[in-house]
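Memo to structure team: turn this sequence into structure tokens by end of day. - J.P.
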Amino acid sequence: PLEPAARCAGRSVAALYHPRYHRPTLRRWALLYVLIPAVLIAAAGLAYFSYTYSSELSARERAVLMDTMAELGTEKVIGVEGEILRTEASVLDAVNVQNLMAFHEFLRDRRPAIESAAILDADQEIMPGGLFTRRAGQTEQVGFRELLETEVIPNLPLGELGLGERAFAHVRDNDHSYLFSYGKHRGGSEEHYIILESDLSYLVGTVFPQYFSVASPHLYQVRDDAGDVVYGYAFAGVPEDDIVEIPFGDTLSRWTLRVTRRDLDELTKPRTQEILGLSLTGLALAVIMGGLGALLWTARQERRANQLKSDFISNVSHELKTPLSIISMFGELLATGRATSDDKKSEYAEIIRRESVRLTSLIDNVLDFAKIERGKGGYEFCEADPAEVTRRALELCHHRLDSAGMRLETDVDEDVPRALMDTNAYTLAVLNLIDNAAKYAQSGEAVVVSLRAHGGGVELAVRDYGPGIPEEERSHVFERFYRGQSVRLEPIRGSGIGLALVKHIAEAHGGRASVDGPEGGGARLRIWIPARPAA
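Reply from structure team:
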């Protein structure tokens, strides 16, 4: 009468595998696999546009900064050249070829930024009394006149000048710079040429500091065509790309004004922002990738757990169905009086009792595992003798091993230290270890159980001589619902929670569970619990 119910239960479990129950799961996985590329594409796009925007912003800020420095430098150059032009204009207004002595007095008294002046006639010869210079000493004056007559005047394009036109010549001679301005003028009825030499020392020492202020947020430097610094300080550690160069143009044609920021932080600030932006974008991308990785790992674990639970349901269903069917069949034989002798009745009753014990053990495992899953797996600890508890547990295992055609060998040390333990839970752990050996190692014909004091505690070892556990699977044997690859190919039913319960019980006692492959083959599973501290 119970078998139809079992068949109905079997159909109910099988119904769980109907395709319609898997459609939501498939849809969720399909959505997940569509969502992940979309998130990756969005993250990559965010990183790209963030990098592009940051780079463009940095480039624009730097361009504005460089343009500002260029405009400022140009204004400074125009100001300096304006000072030179104004000084020369004031000197030219005082030139009187009919009274050169008065012109000399003007240059001495007014002391403008003019080092020398030369008045040339129409034949480009220095007129009598037409040379003025501030150089001290007859030798220097003669040397300068010789320089004018042999090097400067012959090389100036005086004949190409129109009346009233002026030009500049920035001359370098023996590492010394000269700035000459020259022009063609008319005095009375005769044309003449005027050559003026600017006082570069006055220009560098007096004019430049007025324009290139030390209090400015910028740094200024004037450098000649040989690369020597004429004014200012060397820009130590400043990249060339951060320096703006403006030539002086018509006047100091051999000199160049160089400008950079005084506070380099202002110049490098856009780069700092770019690095910060890229770092934050990289961090966001890493968080997204980490989140996706965690999501994939969680989904994979959930999928694996669901698969293991499905296998668990299938295995438990068959495990429950087998003893129920046997109990139902032999109970029906007894109830209908088909047992013709007392021996048969005793045999049938023993079979019913054995299968009931098996069914009870399976249900206890499932209930205990359910408590653990809900976090309600409570234990009642008391001081006990592990040897006595182990011995009582082994007494319950003889029939299980006899029915499997295996013998039990024990090596229990009676002098092991006492421990705080839940005797029922510990007994369940021993029964599960022996049941595991009886189920998966029937080819070994023997199970060896030993109990020893070890490492400040008590170690129980259950060894079989079966096919053993591959090394790559040993780290998984105590996982819930896990069953070995080779076992799945054999017609051996199991729930996959027995060894998970063993591990949980050992850890609840403050101990651990482990497995290894001893010499001689087979597998050895151990549980270790700490001994009770001495009073």
